[in-house]
Each structure stands twice: as structure tokens, then as C-alpha cells.
Amino acid sequence: MTSLIRVEPRGHAGSWVRFGVPALALLFALALGGGILAIAGNNPFEAYRTMFDASLNGWSAMSRTLALATPLILTGLAAAVAFQMRVYNIGGEGQLYLGAIAASWVGLYLPETTPMVLMLGAMLIAGALAGAFWALLAAIPKAYFNADEIITTLMLNFVALSLMNYLIFGSQSFWRDPRRPVPGGKRLPENAILPSLSGRLHFGIIIAVVAAVVLWWILRRTSWGFQIRTIGDSPRAASYAGMSVKLKTLGVLAVSGALAAIAGVSEVSGVSKGLEPRAIATEIGFTGIIIAVVARSNPLGVVPVAVFLAAIATAGSRLQSIGIAVEVVFLLQGLIFLTVTAGEFFVSNRVRFERTAEAEQPGDSSPTTELPAGAT
Amino acid sequence: MTTEPIHLEVRSITKSFYGVAAIDSVDFDLRGGEIHGLLGENGAGKSTLCSVLSGLYRPDSGSVSIDGHELQFRSPQDAASAGIGMVYQHFRLVDSFTVAQNIVLGLRKGQRPKSIRQVETMVSDLADEYGLHVDPTAPIWQLSVGEQQRVEILKQLFRGAKILILDEPTAVLAPQETDRLFEAVETMVAKEHAVVLVSHKMAETMANTDRITVLQRGRNAGSVRTGDTGPADVARMMFGDAKAAERTTIAGPDEVGDPVLTLSNVSVLADKGMTAVDDVSLTVRRGEVVGIAGVAGNGQRELQEAIAGLRPTTSGTIDINGTDCTSTGPKGTMRAGLAYVPEDRLGVGLAPGLPLEHNIALKNHDRAPHSRKGILSTSSIEETTNRLVEDFDVRGNRKGMRVSLMSGGNLQKAILARELTEAHDVLLAAAPTRGLDMAAAAAVRTHIINERADDRGVLVFSEDLDEVIHMSDVVLVMFKGRIVGRFVRDEIDVDRIGLLMTGSQDEEAPADASEASIVLADRVDNERPAAETPPSTIAGAAS
Fold first, then answer.
1. How confident is the model at residue A2 (pLDDT cuts 50, 70, 90)?
2. Mean pLDDT value of segment B163-192
3. Is B145 helix (H, G, I), strand (E, B) or coil?
4. Which residue among A86, A89, A213, B512 is least packed, with the fewest CB closer than 10 Å?
5. Residue B281 — φ and ψ, nearest 5°?
6. So what's the pLDDT on residue A206?
7. CATH architecture of structural domain B7-245
């Protein structure tokens, strides 16, 4: 008599499964991380306590975390909306730079007397358009020549980075401040800076959260979102129903690019307050992809995942003060993503332990089409 | 009893999915030298039982024994070494490999001959022995469906299978190929093999089996000697009462109206750039069901897609209800009044990973009442879904559940519900009952035939010849992209249709066949009340 592990696909996961499994996965990762800390000679409880204090305990810690989370939410949404249609926009990073470039241009170009609301509105729109444009450079070949968007969006990141570096380091451009000895961007006027909410936390967080809710609503409650989700599930069913996959490819990548670019606007206007490549090029766009994966492309899931990720990053610097290497933070991040994505298996499958006369069951990865016929 | 060469006994096998028993305490008994029919509705548990026997699923309880030895199958390999081989309806062959390569695929070093030449010789010998002729050096992609099936059977025989389970083996075969299959099955049985024939087709099961076991809702409804019983008794075992087995009797059309779908000299390319549809012309009128018979892969799919606007035509015109839809795309054909039940239910007809509501609203989600100014009304979609679930008896749905978990019959009903409740003038239905149990298939056929009473036109494609003949007022035969024959109700000659389907028209029906068809068409036209409309042209037969 051995115990039998039986795996069956779940028809529909209840909400306790969908939220409980990732929560358990998180605890599991923390326990693993704690074990590693202990082996390395640290007190895991002290380490976690320090991390918690640094990132989540109290308003000032929380505001640091949320400030860091702001652009991550936006790039996470950018990746998530494209993933909904199974379009893989890896170009959030470059689209973010374009957003920063366009927004800072508007901020520096418009007169300083422009009312703040108009100024910030113009920067947002310009940034979003620039990001959408950058994404369309990959979307058009994808829609009309079936060029792989993973490659094109990824490559465009390097082009965008070179462009931004050129504007500040390689030329006397409009963006560069000629008076500074070390190359840097001109400082934006006060009316072009997103108002601070508390310390480093600025108005961008509100834009990000609103964007998440609006995006969720668009995906679930509009016919555009309906079509995006249909194409994501089955492009052939979508064509059959008369939906234009080409147009939606253009649309979804434009929206994705715009969202990533708004992260750039938020960074340039709320954090660096000028086009500062070193402050902006911090892989926020790439991190957004990971966030979207963990959040299962759900815009409402992107927010907590981004905040959580930001919290760990915020905690990292504090850990050093108690003699723990920053690498522990990356290790924890990696562990968490590993366990949470692995936990997905338990969301879509039911696993049972039973006692029978047999050992493990090899034939259970059988095609799901076999199951409904037997199940109904 | 020791003289019996092989004796498989299944004792009270139970297997559950999601806590629901797919088969419940099923007993089954099989002996070498018999053809054993396994009948049952969809979801009755046939495929689950076969999957247990072939080692794919492991039963929750119960036992399987061969010649008195109880066996535990941990994998299909275990079942294979016990002498059980399964031939699936959808073949498991590598297209670019040769027959011989496919046959030894998966065998370990010690289990197969060293050289492929040896395998080829062995396969040839085996093929001769059983009458399953196929060239062992030919790559799979060059073979017809019937030949591919022979490869699957040879594969199992090569592995020493004494028990062969054939899952819906005739579903994809033309009548002549079916006959050859059963000849081979007879040979196997004569050599003391046992053959399980899983089928939906009553006539074929009655004609070709020694015993029949009927499954009903996961339970064994009884095993009978075929000679001691009749179709009505078996149907009663399958459905519990005789009512569901009643066939819709169809009277011919009283009156045929204006054309709603007219194809003129339409040619279409296949995916690989070869001509799939070659100069096809046909007309479907109001109040008429036109059926297209043909073995799969003769251009039916491409023709369907062209009519639906999903595939461009290279020449010719497609007219739906007075609107030229040759190049309007799927949206245009929908607007012109085409309802389309595609061959591929999951993936084309439905988005498999999305819930039923989403799929019900797939085509009209962007119109009132489902949406206004681009904003969806979830309550309207939900109401419609609930109503259609009720009206079309769609079962097995739970809120939020992906549709791919529903059974084939319910999926088809869901598609029909969506297509038939939307305003339309012509219904294009492809393989509408494929894989459905008798009750579901009958329901689907009734829905389709009712279209005629509602003064709409129907163009139905099916590989099931009985079905085409049963439903259609006009039967067209498609072979190699051309319409090679046309028959009207009451003039239908099953043997000739079968021959035309397999392309052997020239041997059996000499040169005057095409003339005969044309004469037939003219005569039909004179009989019709709507004589002023152009006759349904027979493009292929004219050549």
C-alpha cells in the first residue's frame, strides 16, 4: 500500500483557491528564504522584522514603498494588457523612455506660466502618444507581416535607450542642461512636477491605481476588452466571429506602450524632475513583465504584486544596516516568483492524496478533451 | 474454458472525474475471436472505459484481469505488454515519418529490430497476413485517412496486441474503406484476436459484431449477443426508453423559394497553396437542405471557410441572399445573413478558455442589447445565455467555467443556440453531429431541419453519409475539390455516392455518368415550383 497522488484539471477555481494558493506560496518562499538566512548565520526573524519595518510598517515606510511601486504598477499594466491578447510586449522599458523624453520636452517647452493641470495633462498625453508610437513600430510589422513582437519590442528598447543617452550624454540637445558640469537634463519647472503626497510619494500613484481600475473595467466591461480576451483565447474563434485581429494587435500594443510611457512620465515628472537617464533606466519596464506574469495579467492583481515587489526592494537597503547582503533581497524575489508561478499549477489542477495499492499515476496528463466526455 | 485464447475480464471498475463517476461499477467481458461492440451515448463512459483498458487512466476501484491474472496498468506501455492496443479516432502518427518508423516509434532497443529494412519487411508480412495493405516506406502525410488507420492497427499488431480497441474507426472512412476495415477485423478475429468496436452507429454495430455491451450513464446496461437482439432493444438499453431513439422523419420540401446562397465557379487555395476547391458552383434555395457528402480532406473545409468569408477565393463569386460576399470577410457574410456552425467546435466555433456567456455573445456582443456605445451589458448577456441554455437544453455549464470542459454535444448545442437565434437566412453547418451521441445528434439534426420549415436555406457538410442522405433534399458529392455528383431526394443511389466519394466514378459508372447527372438536374428543375431560378450547376461532373 503506497499513497497515490492524483492530479486532475480543475474546472473552475474558487476564489479561495485563486487567492489562497499564492498566499501560501508566499509564506513558503519566506520560509525557504528564512532557512537560507539561518544557514548563512543570520537571524531570519530579525531580518524579516527589519524588512517589514523598512517597507511596510508605518506611513513613512509605506510611502517609500508606494513611491517605488508607482511606475511598476504602470509597466505591469502595460505588460498585462498585451498578455490578455497573448501579445508579448517586452518593450515596456523603451516605451517608458520615450514617455520620459516626450513628457520632459513638453514640460521644458511650454511656458512656465502654463497652469499645472494643463501642463501635466499635456505631458501625460505627449508621453502616452510617444509610447504608443514606439509600440506601434513593433505592432505594425506584427499585424501585417507577422513579425515576432518579442524580438522587435525587445530590440526597440536598445534603440530607445541609445536615443535617451544621446540626448543627454551625446549631444547638446534641448533636454540637456548646458550649465551642469556632469551631463544631465534640464530641471523641469515647478508646474511640470507631479505634486508630492508624502515625502517621495507623488500624485503618480493615484494615476497608476486609477489606470489599473480603468484598465480592468475596459477589459471586462467593454466590447473592445471582450474582443481582446477572445483573441487572447482563440484567434481563430475571434476571426470566425468577425473580429479584426490586425486592428486589435495595433490597438492593444498602442495601449500597452502608452501605459509604459506613463510610467516614464511619472518618473520624469515625479521623481527625477528632469530627463536623467541613470535615474530612469532602472529596468522598471522589464520588472513590469514579471509583475504581469505573477498577477496572471489581471490589472487588479498588478497593484498588490507591484507594491509587494517594491516593498522587498525598499527593504533591501535597510538589510545592509544589520549586516545582511542585498543579494538576499534578490534571492527572496526569485524564490517568491518561483513559488507563486509554481503555485499556478495548484490553481488549475486539483491534487489529491489517496491510499491505494498503486504508486504514482503517469497517465494523468491526459488530454483535457478526454475528461469532459467522461465527466458530464 | 482453457481453449479460449485470451479472456479479458473487467470487474466493477469505477473512475471519477471531479467527484462524478464517469464509469460506475462497470463489468465487461471480452474473449479472443469475437468482435465486441461498445455502444453508448456521449458521456456514457465508453472512452473512459477504453482509457482504463489501454492504461491511460487508472481506475478508482475494480479490477482488470487477463486469463485470470489480475493486472495493474501504470501506463499505456503496461497495457501494451499485456496485449491490449488502442486505435484512437484521432491518429497518433508523425506525419513526416514513414509507416515503418511510426510503427517502431516508442519501442525500446530490445523491443525492435535493429534495421528499419527488417521492420519494413515485417510490416509488409503483417500487412499481407491481415489484409491491411500499406507501403511501409511511405511517409504518413502521403497516405489517405484509411491507410493511416491501417498503420495505427499495424502498429498495435506489431506490438503483439491480442486485444484491439477501435475507437469510432469508421467515423472518417468512406463506405468502401469501411468494408475493407471490417474485412481486416474479420481476419484478426479469425486469428483469435479480440476486437472492441466503439461506435455511435447502430447499423454498423449490429452488422459487424458478435456481442454488444451498452453503457448508459456510466453503468453497464447489459451485454447481449448481437444475433439475439435488434436495434430497437439496443437503443432502449442505451437511452432507457425508445423515445430518444426515434428518428426525425422528414418529408420532402413542399416548396422551394429563391436562392439564398449561390456559388459561381468558386476556386479556393489550401493553406499550402494547392488548389483545394476547384471551380465549384452550387445554389441553395429557401426551404431546401443541400448536403455535401465527401470523405474529409476533399476541399470541404476550404469551401466552408470561403463561404463564411474566412478564406479568400481565387476566382468565382459567392452571393448570400442577394449580397455579393466574395470578399467581404466574416463580418460581411454574417451581415448578409449567414449563420455558420464550423467543423471545429472548440477553437473556431467557441473560444475554449472562456465561459459560456462569453461564447454565446461572441458574435453580437458589440450590438444592442449586449452593448451600447462599446460598453457591455453583462446582465443582458447573462439573460440571453440563461434563456438559450433553457431553450436548447445545453447542460453541464457552471458559472465562470471554461466551455472546453463541457461535452461535445452540449458545445454543439451552444453553438447552434447562438447561430440560430441570430437573424439569418442561410445556415452553413459543417460536420454538425460529429462525435455526438445519438440523442444529441438527433437534437442537432432537428434544429437544422427546422430551418427549412422556417423558409431558410441550409448547406450541410458531413462525412456521415447516412446523415447527409437523411437530412438533405439535394445531395452533392465532393471529391478533390470538385462537385462530382448531384442527387435529389428519392433518386439517391447510396452505392454510386460511395463510389463518387472515393473517386472511382470512372470504373463503375462510365462516361455517361456526368450526362446523367445533368439530365437529372434539368428534370429536377422542371419539377420545382421555382423553375425560373437557375439550376444547381454541377461544375465537376461536366469535365
1. low
2. 87
3. helix
4. B512
5. -125, 135
6. 97
7. 3-Layer(aba) Sandwich (3.40)
Q: Does A320 touch chain B (CB under 8 A)?
A: no
Long-range interactions of A304-309: CB distance < 8 A, separation 24+: A305/A76, A306/A69, A306/A72, A306/A73, A306/A76, A307/A65, A307/A66, A307/A69, A307/A73, A308/A336, A309/A69, A309/A72, A309/A333
> Is the CB of residue A269 less than 8 Å from the CB of residue A193?
yes
Q: Which residues pair with B165 in a beta bridge?
A: B86, B196
CB contact under 8 A, B352 and A361: no
CA–CA gap between residue B26 and residue B61 (Å, rounded): 10
Beta-bridge partner residues of B458? B289, B427
CB B245 within 8 A of CB B235: yes
Asked whether A191 and A111 are in contact (CB, 8 A), the reply is no
Picking from B376, B415, B424 by the largest number of A CB atoms within 10 A of its own CB, the best residue to mutate is B376
DSSP state of A271: I
CA distance B505 to chain A (A): 35
Q: What percent of chain B has pLDDT over 90?
A: 43
Task: State residue A327's pLDDT score.
Answer: 81
**pLDDT above 80: residue A9:** no
Residue-level pLDDT at A362? 41
Of A12, A220, A237, the CB nearest to B362: A237
Give the span between the Cα atoms of A46 and A321, in whole angstroms.
12
pLDDT of residue B389: 92
Q: What is the mean pLDDT of residues A310-317?
A: 85
Residue whose entry in the numeric block shows the C-alpha cell 464550423: B342
Chain B closest-CA separation from residue A367 CA (Å): 10
Contact A49, A212 (CB under 8 A): no
Of A310 and B271, more confident = A310
Do B401 and B352 contact (CB within 8 A), yes or no?
Answer: no
Same fold, B7-245 and B259-337+424-542: yes
SS3 readout for B191-229: CCCEEEEEECCHHHHHHHCCEEEEEECCEEEEEEEHHHC
**A369 pLDDT higher than 50:** no
Residues B269-292 have pLDDT tens digits of 987 677 889 999 999 999 999 999
Residues with Cβ within 8 Å of B399's Cβ and at least 6 positions away in sequence, in order, are A12, B355
B-proximal residues of A, 224-263, CB under 8 Å: 224-227, 229-230, 233-234, 236-242
Domain positions in chain A are 69-302
- Asked if B330 and A242 come within 8 Å (Cβ–Cβ), the reply is yes
C-alpha count within 13 angstroms, C-beta hemisphere, residue A364: 21
- The interface residues of chain A toward chain B in range 339-358, judged by CB-CB distance below 8 A, are 350, 357-358
| Main-chain dihedrals φ then ψ at residue A281, nearest 5 degrees | -85, 75
Residue A3: strand, helix, or coil: strand
Beta strands in B296-391 (DSSP E): 313-320, 323-324, 338-341, 371-372, 375-376
Q: What is the pLDDT of residue A363?
A: 40
- pLDDT (0 to 100) of residue A313: 86
Q: Does residue B504 surpass a pLDDT of 60? A: no
Average pLDDT over residues A66-95: 97
> Is pLDDT of B528 > 60?
no
Q: Domain residues of chain B, as ranges?
A: 7-245, 259-337+424-542, 350-422
A372 to B76: CB separation less than 8 angstroms, yes or no? no
List CB contacts (< 8 A) between A223 and chain B: 365-366, 371, 374-376
Which grid cell sits at B39? 455502444
pLDDT value, residue A8: 72
pLDDT given for residue A103 in this prediction: 97
Does the CB of B43 have a partner CB in chain A at under 8 Å? yes
B57: contact with A, CB 8 A cutoff: yes
How many whole angstroms separate alpha carbon B358 and alpha carbon B403?
9
Topology of B259-337+424-542 in CATH? Rossmann fold (3.40.50)
